[in-house]
Amino acid sequence: MKNAIQYYYNLNPVDIHQKDDIYYFKVNNTRFFVYPLSRDEKELNSIYQVDIELLNKNFLVHQIILNKQKNIVTVINEIPYVLFKSFIKKNDSIDIDDINYFQSNTETKKHDFFLDKSNWVSLWENKNDYLEYQVSQFGIKYPLICETFSYYIGLAENAILYTKNTTMELKPDFSDSLVISHRRINNYTTLFDLYNPLEFIIDYKVRDISEYIKFKFFYDKQNLWEEINSCFSNNNFSLYSVRMLFARLLYPTYYFDLYDQIIEGERDEKDLHFIIKKQEEYEDFLCDIYNYLSLKYPIPPVEWLTKKL
Q1: Among 144, 147, 149, 148, which residue's Cα sits nearest to residue 132?
Q2: In the predicted model, what is the mean pLDDT of residues 191-195?
Q3: What angle is formed at CA 188 by the lines to CA 184 and CA 189, rounded to 5 degrees?
Q4: Mean pLDDT across 120-128
Q5: Domain range list for the chain
Q6: Residue 200 has what pLDDT?
Q7: How far apart are CA 256 and CA 284, in angstroms?
Q8: pLDDT-derived band of residue 82, with 50, 70 and 90 as boundaries?
Q9: I want to staple 247 with a disulfide (CB 3.0 to 4.6 A). Which of 98, 123, 162, 164 is the partner?
């Protein structure tokens, strides 16, 4: 890797170390890392433009470094990589204040075809159709998925309906601007990930917040309500945003992400037990969230949930 970095970037790295598939090094006390490409190449120019715009605003996300041929991607040993300069000095796990700070600096008026993921209904409906077809082909290969899948598809359909009703009844106001968001905020997300342009998309700010809340509930719910209170103290959410946040809390990303990892051979199907065992508790949490939000905003109920109250 050292020779490739010298050849393609005219940099002389010191003390390269590898963690997972990422290579880290310093040049004159400046931090760099070489990251395997994890995005469709059609998205790269849009990501690069977002990166430049944020850096020009002095918001120090990781900086994409072009190679000698002025290309974003460098293929090394048949693997495509992107080189970044990093300004992050520590790689702690994130909290909700980190997300709020990031979003307050990344509002955008862009409606980029490749990065804009704000049409949740279309994305979720397509995902449901794909997953339902895929599960219908399993036979007995994944018995636990087959046993639990209909429940989580039902949750997803609830989320879709709630989102549809919100977008039909309300329009975003000036506080509902799009921001730079992330493909996924989960229990593994660190500051390093938060500032990594290869994770960037464009969406409403409640996307990252709701994903954080969901994964925090399942994997580390200590202080979760304190963080939720902090989030609402530091944000002036519109009714539109609050309804979209609740819709996204209904959507079972935590199940579908694990499902994908199981199908791709990265996780064992038995890992689903952890999620399934907590599902009734999560329903109670959704009731609590609904009560919390309805004290501040006139949000519509989800009938089967409110029957639990």
Answers
A1: 149
A2: 96
A3: 55
A4: 98
A5: 2-86, 96-306
A6: 98
A7: 20
A8: very high
A9: 162
Domains 2-86 and 96-306 share a fold: no
d(CA 120, CA 273): 27
Beta strands in the chain (DSSP E): 14-19, 22-27, 30-36, 63-65, 74-76, 79-86, 107-108, 178-182, 200-204
CB-based contacts of 304, cutoff 8 Å, min separation 6:
none
Sequence-ordered list of residues with C-beta below 8 angstroms from that of 63, at least 6 positions apart, any chain? 51, 55, 84, 85, 86, 87
Find the length of the chain: 309
Rounded to an integer, the average pLDDT of 122-129 is 98
Residue matched to tokens 């290309």: 71
Mean pLDDT, rounded, for 298-304: 95
Own/partner pairs, 230-238, CB within 8 angstroms, 24+ separation? 230/96, 230/97, 231/96, 231/100, 232/296, 234/97, 234/100, 235/100, 235/205, 236/175, 237/175, 237/206, 237/297, 238/172, 238/173, 238/175, 238/176
Q: Are strands 107-108 and 63-65 parallel, antiparallel or unpaired?
A: unpaired
Does the domain at 2-86 match CATH 3.90.1170.20? Answer given as no
DSSP three-state, residue 32? strand
- Sheet containing strand 200-204, edge to edge, reads 107-108, 178-182, 200-204
Token look-up 């038995």 returns 270
- Contact indicator for 163, 244 with CB cutoff of 8 Å: yes
Quickly tell me which residue has 């970095």 as its tokens. 5
- Amino acid, single-letter form, for residue 159: A
DSSP string, 279-305: HHHHHHHHHHHHHHHHTTS-PPP-HHH
Task: Report the alpha-carbon distance of residue 111 to residue 291 in Å, rounded.
Answer: 34
What confidence score (pLDDT) does residue 309 get? 66
Hey, what CATH topology would domain 96-306 get? Aminoglycoside 3'-phosphotransferase; Chain: A, domain 2 (3.90.1200)
pLDDT digit string (tens) for 209-262? 999 999 999 999 999 999 999 999 999 999 999 999 999 999 999 999 999 999
